[in-house]
Amino acid sequence: MSRGLRLLPIILLIWILGTFAWRLIQPDDPTIRSQLVNREVPEFALPAVLPNTAGLKSTDLATGKPRLLNLFASWCVPCIGEAPVLDELRKRGVAIDGIAIRDNNGAVGAFLNRHGNPYERIGSDPTSRTQLALGSSGVPETFIIDGKGVIRLQHVGAIERSDLPRIMAELEKVR
Amino acid sequence: MIAEAGLAALWLAAALSLLGLFLSVLHVRGTLEADRPVRALAIVQGAMCLFAFSMLLLVFARTDLSVALVVENSHSEKPFLYKVAGAWGNHEGSMLLWVMVLGLSGAALATFSRQLSSRTLIAALGAQAALALGFHAFLLGASNPFARLNPAAPEGRGLNPLLQDPGLAFHPPTLYLGYVGLSVAFSLAVGAMLAGDVDRRLARAMRPWVLGAWIFLTLGITAGSYWAYYELGWGGWWFWDPVENASLMPWLAATALLHSVAVLAARNALKAWTMMLAVIAFSMSMVGTFLVRSGILTSVHAFAVDPTRGAFLLLLLGIYVSAAFALFAVRAGSLREGAPFEPVSREAGIVVNNLLLTVILGIVFIGTLYPLFVEALSGEKLSVGAPYFNAVAGPLAILLGILLAVGPLLSWRREGRPILRKLALPALFAATALVIAFLAIPQASPLSKFGLALAAGLIPASLVPLIGRNPLRTPLATWGMAIAHMGAAVSVAGMAADSAFTTERLTAVKLGETVSVGPWLVAFQGISPVAGPNWTAVEAELHASRGGGVSVLRPQTRFFTSPPTETNEAAIDTFLNGQLYTVIGRSDEEGRWQLRLWWKPLVTLIWLGGGLIGFGGLLAFAGHARRSWRKRLAQ
User: Fold this and answer.
1) Interface check B310 vs A, CB under 8 A
2) Which residues belong to any copy of the Thioredoxin domain (chain A) (predicted)?
3) Contacts of residue A21 in chain B, CB cutoff 8 Å?
4) How many CB atoms lie within 10 A of CB B311?
5) pLDDT tens digit sequence for B214-241
6) Cα(A38)–Cα(A152) distance, rounded to whole angstroms?
7) What is the DSSP letter of B148?
8) What is the DSSP letter of A54?
9) Given B294, B298, B325, which is nearest A10 (Cβ)?
10) Can you state the angle between helices B271-294 and B200-231, rounded to 10 degrees?
11) What is the secondary structure of B569-581 as a DSSP string?
12) B296 and A24: CB-CB below 8 Å?
């Protein structure tokens, strides 16, 4: 067996180990990004959840002013953590609409009574059909939508207080 | 105290393996005669590991909620079997199991492998101690199974309900026995290369370990495949998932090694190649463990994922495998190849077998890691699925199958007898089956048609080596080989039949409705709630009939509370000619229930074949053991 051939396994091994080490240092980002960023919101019309709050249609999102679209559910634990941050955003003058995912109306009412209601309109999406159309894979998720109804940013997971400057800057940019 | 006793035993075992490594280095360098102390240390170290693992079983059996691992993986109301299985159904426990098997293997090596030269054996024990030391460091440094929780928890968090299944309780230990058995082959190869003693004696000492590891891997993979088939509820038996591939790769390497070690034992040939395979086989076990534990690949069953632990395992992998390959690079040149052989001979057949198996191993390895390599180079994300593996590995597997018919008929060194006559009948069977397949099932894939034809020829061909022999005087190892080869043929038949003949039906049915699948009429007769020890479920009642007789199937959707999870329990009815596989899904607003039905003709042959392969291996093992026992008595 020639010398070069005998060293081949060890060269291959170093390459493989190098790749493994690279992935360990740089773990995979498991978030699923929507294909719809920088495209128009797909058409939908969702019924109201609460008697005194309107339902949500895709046309409601193109009002000339940027707004947030927040997907949430009463059964979603991280949504509880996100509630005060959404409230803070509302106090800063951000318009927020909500979509309740796979939820029932009574539970949504109770959830909003307990954790605060930052939403101008709330649509109900009991089968996740609209959620899937938006390219969202879980709750909570938040989209920034500009005045023309085009999705500008997708935020996967709960919005933390540390995310506020980025969200505000993004809203300022699309104003 | 129980947990502390276990922990103390682990530290002691680690210290003993360090001492054993040190003494064996002195012995191999010739500065100190340490044969007996090294062997004694290996035995005591194994006993300490066994003790530590028994302590872990005990804290799990008693549901000691002051031990963090118990709290995370058990629950006081869990069935007893799963309480015990919970001990190894998690990262820390399974690593302790690994270390225990490693320690016991070292002890067995020290006890039974006396036929080796003292230098080779002690060098191998040193290599085994080095392996043990690394895994002890991993266990004690990064995943202590005995860590206490203060204050104790009021209740445990349970076990992933997907894993709460008798099949899975015994599946990981079986695979581990296989993985770790290969560690002994690795240590023996390293020891022999260090001592410069690669010969037939080494092959005879290595063979039972390879054979044993291979039997456990075969049974583990077979059981894992059946578990996935009936527990995951998707009706498939192999997914080419990274975790499955992680167990298939060492099996492929072990299969190749098993055959090349036979050549080394019988003919003193293929020395460098056998050493190489021994190193690769254990490397594949470690790569497999690393892939499952580090989470660097996305998998449907990613348990116990942790990058820190991944880094530790990668370090161990890097040290051991690169040291072994470096040793190989230095020593391979000095391994004089033994007896020569002709291009048509059993040796040559085994060389081709080894090449095919190694190429398939390469295909699986590349397919499993390709997404990772591509992303490292270009940042692009992609995934490799069943189409690649089937298209690339399938034809090679068919070639391997043809060789399976021819190889055992060849004689050592040089083939003088005409073997074509012996193969005439099997070849006729295969050709007839191929013609029938092309005429009768045009819709089936070419691969499954060739698979069916191959099986039709291979089942009789595997019996040819037994023809003309006195069954009582035929060595058990020959029986084992014939049965294992027949098992492979039976499995191929099952796989090909499953892909060629399965019919599937996905519908939504109301109570009282009847749907058909294959030859069956399935009536949806009832739906009712049922409760188990730690779950509640909705259970459907299905009455299936074809001609006479009705079988009742009760598929369930189960809800576990701790942690909250939903699983589908398929109901499967097995008949002589196939399985009826039913899964109940969700209900919609109009009161219809999702129902998935499969009629899978001959699918059970897949696992029956796996069992036969394992049984054949067991017979061969018994045959070799009896022979060496007789030799020892005669001396």
Assistant:
1) yes
2) 35-173
3) 311, 314
4) 16
5) 999 999 999 888 888 887 777 788 888 8
6) 5
7) B
8) B
9) B325
10) 30
11) E-EEEEETTEEEE
12) yes
